[in-house]
């Protein structure tokens, strides 16, 4: 009998910490990308609303296509370059691309700041495509590592929670630095952002890159990638317990034939759409809808949202265990709907409550809701993959493909029909109020309906069956025999 190589049930504290910071560079850059891309390209570079939206769409499409490619290739590879882990190799490629391209995305065009806008558009689009390819390399490989590191459900939820906690902390860091920079370079009554504020974005960009680089060093030095995927370790462990047994192996085609694959994909897409739409349009909502507030609230409001989200992420493991994924998801969606109601009625409440207080409460509710729903959607996808990590990156790639494409299309459509100019008007006030209320609120309702559709479904459970053979009737598992033939030849014990 070959020696048993078993995956550890519990990931060490050092491993958890190193893993949790492995997505920080992506989180920091994504925070700037979604929160300030439209502000930067419309108000600093002076692109039209539609052009700024198309730049975001180009980035999202590039990201969506790259996630599918990386998902396939990461699963196909059994080893990384020069003996490096297969997941960490793709992660490292992504880090190099992000570090080399992102500084150009949020700085004025080098030696072409006064060129025609169409030339600047292609300049920024080139660096955006490189950035998004690198971003997807790091994201998919980092997500796929969860199921490689451990097969225990509680440990996977913990890794998802820690990962999301650092995502929230990264957003808090970006908004904290942005609020300081905007506050230092702002007069008391300044409410708008103009081309004169380009140095603020340059400083913020290099701060983000430096901090992210430090976290990437910690990740690559501090975490050892498993040499044996979790499903293979678990299979060998089961072989040591029974005379013969196996877990059902999966291919990408088999995943595409499962109904819950599409249900989980829609839930993932909807929860990311809620997060990204609110992240993109909250700064514009503050600038154009609540135009009386100082522009520092462009950073302070999302800061409140992410602080509350960070606090909500800590008890998430216990809540998931006690209430289950689906109940927890529904509670989070209720918080999201409550926040969108406040965004819509903010002026009606103003005579009774100061507008700053109402805005803060709405952002806190939004932060709790988005934090809860995103952790649950990650955990549902992890459940879907289960021990079948041979296709883990593919599953995460398709999920990301759907959410990136949906986000890009929705935001591009909103910007295409955006009636606002640089100066705030009554039309802008109503437009951004509708966007920040109706889109997240409507998507939250759709997500509740989709969650109800899987309420009694055991996600991924139909593959977690061990086939045990008696000593007299045992048949060795032959990889050339397909699953149906093998099940017919072998008794199944539930």
Question: Strand share of the residues?
Answer: under 5%
Number of alpha- plus pi-helical segments: 18
**What letter string, H or E per element, gives the SSE order?**
HHHHHHHHHHHHHHHHHH
Query: Helical proportion?
Result: over 70%
CATH architecture: Up-down Bundle
The total of beta strands comes to 0
Radius of gyration: 24 Å
CATH topology tier name: Growth Hormone, Chain: A
The CATH superfamily is: MFS general substrate transporter like domains
Shape by Cα distribution: globular
The total domain count is 1
Mean pLDDT equals 80
The SS-based structural class is mainly alpha
Keywords: Membrane, Transmembrane, Transmembrane helix
Transmembrane segments: 20-41, 53-72, 92-110, 122-144, 164-184, 204-223, 265-287, 296-315, 327-347, 359-381, 393-414, 435-455
Pfam families: MFS_2
GO molecular function: symporter activity
Structure commentary:
The chain is mainly α and 494 residues long. The protein has a single domain (15-463), classed as Growth Hormone, Chain: A (Up-down Bundle). Helix content is 72%, strand content 0%. The two termini are 26 Å apart. The model is unreliable at 1-7, 233-245 and 464-494 (pLDDT under 50).
